[in-house]
Each structure stands twice: as C-alpha cells, then as structure tokens.
Q: What sequence folds into this?
C-alpha cells in the first residue's frame, strides 16, 4: 500500500478539495496524512458556534480532527503558520502569516513530514491556488518545493475544471437551484481553477460523497447548515462535488483522464 500526503491552507479546505480522494484512499488501504499550513484564525465565523472563551483557532483545530476522522486520516499535522486572510487585507503582512513565510523554510518543514512518511503521492494546489487566496497560492509554492526536496514521485495539483464549472452553473440555473445573480460571475469563473485542456486527472468520488459531506459538516464554524455546501439536495451535491480534478505534474494533459492518484492508468 502507498502513502498519500495532502497539503492544505486552512481547516475545511481538505474536505472541499480532496475529501473524496482521501476517503477513497483510506478505504483502499492506503495511509492518508493531512498537513494544514495554518489554523484558519481569520475565517468568517458562523454565528453562535464558539463556546465561551473559545478562540476560532481552537475550534477549527477540533473541527479538523473530526473531519480527519471521517475521512480516514491516519496522521494530521499543522505547520503552525497564521491564516493570512483574504486578498488585500492587512493580515496578509502580519507576523507569522503563511502568505509571507519564507518558501524554502516552510518547504523544509513539510519535507520533514514527507520524508518521515516516505510519501508516494502529494497533493498541493494549482498555481492560482484555485481562486487566488494568498495562502492557497503559497500552498502551491511551498508544496511544489517540498515535493522536490523530499523526492516525492507523484505530485497532483488539486484544482477545478473551469469549463465544467460553467456547465454546472447553467445546469443549476435550469434546475431552479440558482437564481439570477447567484453563484460566481463569468469574470470569477475565468480566473478560477484550470482550463479543461490542461487537466490530467478526473476522480469520480461519488461512492464517497457521504463522507465528503460529513467532513464538511464537521467544520461547523465555517460551513453553516444552510450554506450552499450543505443545503443542496443530495443529487445536486453529488453533481457539484462528486468529481475531484487534478493536474498530475509531468503527465500529459487532456482526456482520456487518469482516474487514480496512485496509478498512471487512464480511462478509455
């Protein structure tokens, strides 16, 4: 069996981006290791979820550990950086913020874990960090360098399929699940994820969609029961989140897609 190390910026990113492949890998007998760069201290807080005296960082640590349990994670590590906040906020430059961390220093921290685990597969984010969040972009930089330092043989950049996102928006509107003005604008979509022609790997995670949704539910300080993530009907949720897309570094893009992070086999 192999070891998958999946690297993320904040608590809850893991289940949204890679929750399906994590649970699938665990069920297949692989070792799954989760590494989170920050504590998510600057996330927006769902009303009335914090216990008296509890900080958001403390709550998000607890939520991460529960989500990790749901997803079959064998080891969870935090690199200890501070959430940098959204683009353009003053917290981007605060002491300890991940966005301003020295890439080589952070990569060496992650590389220690990769070597300890003899990682066979590492997931990071694409070069845009999915949607441009400073910490997500930094995950790409740090993760790619750490994979190089540790000699990880397979690196997959978690992303979204830009064209599929457009198709899903149209389908959701036609089904009455999204009103006019809801969801991302075309300008937003044009800068999110990766063009379909550049993708290498399409993983159908619908057999593990219940675990993925349960892991999202564990992050209750960030994902409210009436949020887009949890309020969708089951069928619509599976349509939106039942496929996880990646760019396998060094592999040829385009269909037929790879369907497994652990093998080079491609679907016909």
A:
């Amino acid at each position: 069996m192999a070891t998958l190390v999946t690297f993320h910026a904040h608590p809850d990113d893991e289940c949204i981006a890679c929750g399906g492949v994590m649970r699938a890998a665990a069920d297949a007998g692989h070792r799954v290791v989760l590494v989170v760069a920050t504590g998510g201290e600057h996330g927006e807080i769902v009303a009335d979820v914090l216990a008296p005296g509890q900080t958001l960082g403390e709550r998000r640590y607890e939520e991460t550990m529960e989500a990790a349990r749901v997803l079959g994670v064998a080891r969870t590590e935090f690199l200890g950086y501070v959430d940098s906040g959204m683009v353009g906020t003053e917290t981007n430059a605060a002491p300890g913020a991940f966005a301003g961390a020295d890439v080589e220093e952070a990569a060496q921290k992650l590389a220690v874990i990769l070597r300890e685990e003899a990682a066979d597969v590492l997931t990071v984010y694409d070069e845009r960090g999915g949607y441009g969040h400073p910490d997500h972009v930094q995950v790409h930089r740090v993760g790619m360098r750490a994979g190089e330092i540790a000699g990880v043989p397979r690196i997959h950049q978690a992303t979204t399929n830009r064209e599929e996102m457009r198709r899903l928006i149209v389908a959701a509107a036609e089904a009455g699940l999204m009103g006019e003005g809801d969801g991302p604008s075309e300008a937003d979509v044009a800068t999110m994820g990766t063009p379909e022609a550049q993708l290498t790997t399409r993983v159908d995670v619908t057999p593990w969609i219940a675990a993925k949704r349960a892991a999202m539910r564990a992050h209750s300080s960030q994902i409210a029961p009436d949020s887009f993530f949890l309020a969708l009907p089951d069928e619509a949720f599976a349509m939106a989140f039942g496929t996880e897309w990646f760019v396998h570094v060094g592999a040829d893009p385009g269909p037929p897609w790879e369907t497994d992070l652990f093998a080079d086999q491609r679907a016909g």
